[in-house]
């Protein structure tokens, strides 16, 4: 009996020790939620870890930053996907400069001056000493009586001009030639006289430098009414003849070479009297599209300088 009594306090102490150890273990488990809270931002942005439903009596750790609110700003230290950490470069790649500013582009020599679609302007010139080999006198009236190189055109262009003049005459609007072919030397003299009269800047708006004139190709002609009134003058634009040419020239292979509103492309002022032969296929296409020869050939670089 005494032995049992003596052992009873020991059993009590043993039992108390077990209780203390058990309490310590429970305290360790109580720290687990704080660890989850510290990782909450990571858990919240991982939809795979938020798919499970919370246990009864437990708070859903994703309730504050749930996946249903993607517009919620990220916590500090997290990169905002809408704002790249490295801003994109604002430098725009510029096209290669074709030449120094203020430096005139070199004038190119045309490769095939006999082509009826040859482009001759302030950027493209005829070869030195070029003279068309098939020049003829078209059977049409001119405003002057004497024989002159100004009557001549290349053979194909001359035949087309005769048809055009006949059609205009049939429509009661007879035409006359003013100036067709010009040699290099003639154009040189004409240009020099205009420069002397009006200055180079003004002359460049209506007269071509030698080698850069369409008249030297034998494919161009200035025309007017039979009286010669308004010949190669601005007032020609208001005449019935000018209107007829604008509407019908393309039917015979000619274009109004320097149309209104295209001065920055052709390099010259509006000249409703200046016809250029290119053949009916090209002339009709140009008229239909309302473009210049430069634009048609893909050479629409401003040359009004």
Structure characterization notes:
It is built from ten helices and eight strands. With 305 residues, it is an alpha+beta fold. It has a domain at 108-296: 2-Layer Sandwich (Muramoyl-pentapeptide Carboxypeptidase, domain 2). The protein has a four-stranded antiparallel sheet. The radius of gyration is 46 Å and the shape is globular. The termini are far apart.
Features:
alpha+beta; globular; disordered N terminus; Muramoyl-pentapeptide Carboxypeptidase, domain 2; 10 helices; 305 residues
Which helices and strands, and how do they pair?
Blueprint: H1 2-29, H2 32-38, H3 40-44, E1 108-109, E2 124-125, E3 135-136, E4 153-154, H4 155-170, E5 175-179, H5 184-198, H6 200-203, E6 220-225, H7 240-248, E7 254-258, H8 263-266, E8 271-277, H9 280-289, H10 293-296
Parallel strand pairs: 1-2
Antiparallel strand pairs: 3-4, 5-6, 6-8, 7-8
Biased composition (Polar residues): 52-61
Pfam family, one: VanY
Signal peptide: 1-24
């Amino acid at each position: 009996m005494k032995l049992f009594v003596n052992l009873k306090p020991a059993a009590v102490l043993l039992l108390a020790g077990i209780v203390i150890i058990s309490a310590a273990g429970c305290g360790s488990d109580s720290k687990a939620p704080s660890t989850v809270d510290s990782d909450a931002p990571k858990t919240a942005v991982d939809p795979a870890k938020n798919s499970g439903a919370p246990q009864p009596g437990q708070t859903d750790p994703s309730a504050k930053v749930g996946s249903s609110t993607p517009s919620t700003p990220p916590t500090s230290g997290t990169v905002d996907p809408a704002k790249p950490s490295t801003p994109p470069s604002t430098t725009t790649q510029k096209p290669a400069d074709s030449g120094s500013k203020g430096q005139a582009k070199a004038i190119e020599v045309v490769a095939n001056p006999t082509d009826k679609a040859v482009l001759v302007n302030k950027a493209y010139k005829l070869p030195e000493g070029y003279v068309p080999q098939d020049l003829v006198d078209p059977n049409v009236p001119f405003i002057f009586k004497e024989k002159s190189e100004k009557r001549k055109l290349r053979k194909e262009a001359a035949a087309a001009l005769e048809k055009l003049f006949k059609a205009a005459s049939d429509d009661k609007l007879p035409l006359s030639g003013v100036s067709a072919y010009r040699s290099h030397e003639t154009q040189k003299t004409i240009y020099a006289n205009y420069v002397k009269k009006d200055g180079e800047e003004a002359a460049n708006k209506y007269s071509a430098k030698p080698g850069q004139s369409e008249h030297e190709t034998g494919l161009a002609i200035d025309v007017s009414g039979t009286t010669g009134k308004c010949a190669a003058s601005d007032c020609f634009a208001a005449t019935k003849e000018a209107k007829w040419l604008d509407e019908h020239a393309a039917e015979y292979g000619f274009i109004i070479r320097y149309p209104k509103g295209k001065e920055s492309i052709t390099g010259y002022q509006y000249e409703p009297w200046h016809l250029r032969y290119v053949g009916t296929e090209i002339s009709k296409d140009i008229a239909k599209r309302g473009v210049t020869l430069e634009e048609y050939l893909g050479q629409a670089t401003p040359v009004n300088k």
